[in-house]
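Re: that backbone. Tokens:
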């Protein structure tokens, strides 16, 4: 059970009562740090989730923020998840984003079409043009069943369908059987008429990664 103290009201620290929407995940019996929906602040969101440490207990602020996002953007049974039952764990492998798996507790089942589990992606990259292009391509792939389903979008991140999987190794990709399965999908992706810049970005992207890892 996570216990958090709510800052007392002082002249320099005003605190508004929770809106009806906030009460989805924040109640008087289960207070957050502030009665405020800060999910619209993408900088603040990145700052909070970047503190995630798999070797330490999950901070109360991460739990509250993640649970609020689930309640607001996934809806259904996610609106009923108690803070002590909320399940979240980090997913490794992300290069420019923070990835987390969120799951409904065993005692709750979906009410409508909401997923039992989802991938929570928090954007960390600062290049707005690149982020916009990536989001557009992801949406197109989702609509054409060429990638995970888009489950929800919010400033600073999104919810995606969670597909248990792993990255293929170089040796596996070189196998003819797998290559024959991958090639048609890659071809479909490359023929998409996406409303993004048409200039080649390969060299620019490579230079950015080299600069980052110097």
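Recovered sequence:
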């Amino acid at each position: 059970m996570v216990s958090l103290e709510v800052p007392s009201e002082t002249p320099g620290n005003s605190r508004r009562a929770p809106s009806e929407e906030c009460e989805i995940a924040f109640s008087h019996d289960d207070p957050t740090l502030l009665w405020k929906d800060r999910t619209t602040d993408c900088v603040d969101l990145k700052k909070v989730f970047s503190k995630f440490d798999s070797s330490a207990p999950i901070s109360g602020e991460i739990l509250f923020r993640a649970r609020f996002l689930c309640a607001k953007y996934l809806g259904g049974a996610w609106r009923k998840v108690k803070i002590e039952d909320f399940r979240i764990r980090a997913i490794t492998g992300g290069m420019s984003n923070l990835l987390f798996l969120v799951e409904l507790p065993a005692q709750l089942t979906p009410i409508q079409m909401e997923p039992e589990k989802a991938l929570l992606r928090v954007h960390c990259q600062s290049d707005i043009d690149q982020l916009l292009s990536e989001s557009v391509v992801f949406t197109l792939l989702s609509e054409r069943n060429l990638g995970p389903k888009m489950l929800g979008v919010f400033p600073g991140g999104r919810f995606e369908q969670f597909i248990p999987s792993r990255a293929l190794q170089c040796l596996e990709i070189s196998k003819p059987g797998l290559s024959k399965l991958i090639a048609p999908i890659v071809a479909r992706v490359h023929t998409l008429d996406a409303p993004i810049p048409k200039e080649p970005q390969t060299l620019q992207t490579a230079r950015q990664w080299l600069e980052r890892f110097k």
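The chain has six helices and five strands. The chain has a mean pLDDT of 77.
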